[in-house]
Task: structure prediction
Amino acid sequence: MATPDRFPLPQVSESTRKPEWLKVRLPSGDGYERVKSIVRRTKLSTVCEEARCPNIAECWGGGTATVMLMGEVCTRACRFCHVKVGAPPPLDPMEPIHLAQAVKEMDLEYIVVTSVNRDDRPDGGASHFASAIRELRQHSPKTIVEVLIPDFKGVERDLATVAEARPHVVAHNVETVERLTPTVRDRRATYRQSLKVLEYLKQRPEKLYTKTSIMVGLGETDAELEQTFKDLRAVGVDVLTLGQYLQPSQYHLRVERFVTPQQFADYKSLAESYGFLYVASGPLVRSSYRAAEFFMKGLMERERLGLAGNT
Result:
């Protein structure tokens, strides 16, 4: 986590106070409580809780969840992210099997598996990801597996390791527009490198669906967003999610603006005009978002029946 002497404290103004459309109810419901109890008992690390996701009740109650592999300490220091930064502990070789057993017990329809960056590992943790994918597909063959991966420094060998394990969907987030990337993300994570990662994955023989996410409210312009949509479609990205950036602590980047629901609707229409298979766009949308996952589930069911094909 960033330290107080690293970034100046932001000043709160009326323009950066949360508007009404960002307020959500406390999570509840039988489905939510059932998943919560299993998460507690199996000690799964979920992004849903770590990131205080506003959609946790909807997702857990509807049979989806996002879990985090390889510990809770990241080797990169992105200025939007609340994950701890430092020297991570060794990997747990039993984590993939424990994850698969927990997901089987939860009987999830859709699981998103993500991780911290592990630049300390020779392969960035790619083989660990691959083990988790294989275990999930073996133990829960009906569960759709999406992985939200780091860039693995752009090393194609490591990206191939993940792809060859055959997740149903592979996601890697560009996070923001090109101009803001050096300010928002760790210096090792570049906009062009992320585009190359997405392009390489899309061109793989496994013919995976690819996905990415953008945060808005960091100072980007509409023209920059449109250029990002163009760039993403140029490398074949299938699914795009856009959501409001929310400052996780006083030591992180401040919110420059709160985008209105109507503006999100306009961004959705604009992005769709470039040919994405699906665009989820709204103040509470996150990179793992039930509406997008529901779309992917339906798409794969139609594909199984021979009614649709991967683009």
Notes: Residues 1-15 have pLDDT under 50 and may be disordered. The two ends are 40 Å apart (CA to CA). The longest strand covers residues 209-216. The CA atoms of residues 185 and 306 lie 41 Å apart.
